[in-house]
Amino acid sequence: MKFDILTLFPAMFDGPMTESILKRAVERGLIGVTLHNIRDFAFDRHSVTDDYPYGGGAGMVMKVEPLAACIEHAKTGSPNGRVILTTPRGRPFSHAVAEGLAREEGLIIICGRYEGVDERVRELFVDDEISIGDFVLTGGEMAAMVIVDAVSRFVPGVLGSEDSAVNDSFSDGLLEYPQYTRPPEFRGLSVPSVLLSGNHQEIAKWRRRQSLCRTAATRPDLLEDAHISASDRAYLAELQKVAGSDG
Ligand code: SAM
User: Fold this and answer.
1) In ligand 1, which atom is closest to the CA atom of 130?
2) What is the DSSP letter of 93?
3) What residue's CA is closest to ligand 1, atom 5?
4) What spacing in Å lies between the alpha carbon of 219 and ligand 1's midpoint?
5) pLDDT tens-place string over residues 170-198
6) Catalytic residues
7) Which helix (H) or strand (E) holds 99?
8) Do 2-152 and 185-246 have matching folds?
9) Where are the domains of the chain?
10) Whose CA is nearest to atom 22 of ligand 1?
11) pLDDT tens digits along 53-97
């Protein structure tokens, strides 16, 4: 998977792309990350990349010409790359979106700044617009990092054990169960005894119920599309009954 990132602030990517799992993935050739400084594609003496908005209003808008040249340059190295604009107006990013994007040959991600980019960039070049949440960041760099990180986890071999992606939150539509490691007791809090029992069937049942319970408590909307069995349904009904009698 090849990532091309178009940004005015390439140094922001130094840490996230050069540590831990992503660093190893790059070293092993599983992913490639190329940073393109949009300013290098400015065409005037002062390397101007933004200008006042037509029609007036606050802030500046990223100019179309440097971005067009930068995207076209990135396309020469990644001709089939899907061009993504980071924007709060985009479709919501999610586990499923990340999984879908991981099937692309490459992603060319545009990081906006100021009030955003000239609309003609979207019209001429953009295949997909992605928002990482209903809030406004100062720039698209952190959104791009989130996309690169979440998509990379679906690239075969990037995670040490393929299992960890399978059991993660959202993989079956539910939030993950609580995790524990040694010591068995800390400040009066013990690890649930079932996890120490060695009974794998009981452990799986406990984890499933914890997932259901957490999801029902904090993200009940996820239950609508989750894979729910008849026994899951019975457990959820039991939870609701208990909640009803408590209230
Ligand atoms: N004026 C824009 C609006 O109201 O939609 C916000 C521009 S924001 C200050 C600057 C840049 O940050 C955007 O062009 C985009 O690249 C990025 N950005 C901000 N919030 C984002 C979000 N929730 N998801 C993805 N990108 C975001």
Assistant:
1) 25
2) P
3) 88
4) 25
5) 888 999 999 999 999 999 999 999 999 99
6) 88, 115, 153, 168
7) helix 95-101
8) no
9) 2-152, 185-246
10) 88
11) 999 999 999 999 999 999 999 999 999 999 999 999 999 999 999
Say which residue, 240 or 79, is predicted with more confidence: 79
Q: Is 113 in the pocket of ligand 1 (CB under 6 A)?
A: yes
- The number of the ligand 1 atom at minimal distance from the alpha carbon of 139 is 12
Q: Please enumerate in sequence order all residues whose Cβ is within 8 A of that of 52, keeping only pairs 6 or more positions apart, or say none.
A: 60, 61
Spacing, Cα 106 to ligand 1 middle (Å)? 22
| 86 Cβ below 6 A of ligand 1 | yes
CATH fold group of domain 185-246: Trp Operon Repressor; Chain A (1.10.1270)
DSSP summary character for residue 193: G
User: CATH second-level architecture of 2-152?
Assistant: 3-Layer(aba) Sandwich (3.40)
Say what the pLDDT of residue 162 is. 58
- Ligand 1 atom nearest residue 59's Cα: 1
Reported as a pLDDT band with limits 50, 70 and 90, residue 243 is confident
Task: Kindly state if the Cβ of 136 falls inside 6 Å of ligand 1.
Answer: yes
Residue that wins the pLDDT comparison between 51 and 243:
51
Ligand 1 centre distance from Cα of residue 70 (Å)? 19
Read off the pTM: 0.94
120-165 residue pLDDT tens: 999 999 999 999 999 999 999 999 999 999 999 999 999 987 557 7
Please list, residue by residue across 17-43, b when 16 or more beta carbons sit within 10 angstroms of its beta carbon and e when fewer do.
Answer: beeeebeebbeeeebebebbbbeebbe
Residue 35 CA to residue 74 CA, distance in Å, equals 9
